Amino acid sequence: MADAGGAWDNAKKIVEVDLCLIALFFVYRSFYGMRIPEEK
Questions:
Q1: Do the beta carbons of residue 21 and residue 29 sit within 8 Å?
Q2: Non-local CB neighbours of 37 within 8 Å, separated by 6+ positions
Q3: Which of 2, 7, 16, 21 has the fewest Cβ atoms within 10 angstroms?
Q4: Residues 15-39: pLDDT tens digits?
Q5: For the chain, domain boundaries
């Protein structure tokens, strides 16, 4: 594995993007939930 460093950098970037997307999803969901109350 000569390019282990590059692969590790790519993996970290993918994880960071995933975390950002998850955070945006939760923020969007909480914001959407505040605007439109859920019917129970």
A1: no
A2: none
A3: 2
A4: 999 999 999 999 998 888 877 666 6
A5: 1-40
In angstroms, the CA 24 to CA 17 distance is 10
Q: Please tell me the distance from the alpha carbon of residue 35 to that of residue 24, in angstroms, as a whole number.
A: 16
Residue 14: strand, helix, or coil: helix
36: helix, strand or coil: coil
Placement of tokens 């859920």 in the chain: 38
pTM of the predicted structure, to 2 decimals: 0.52
Dig out the tokens for 13 from the structure: 């970037």
> pLDDT tens digits, residue range 6-16?
888 999 999 99
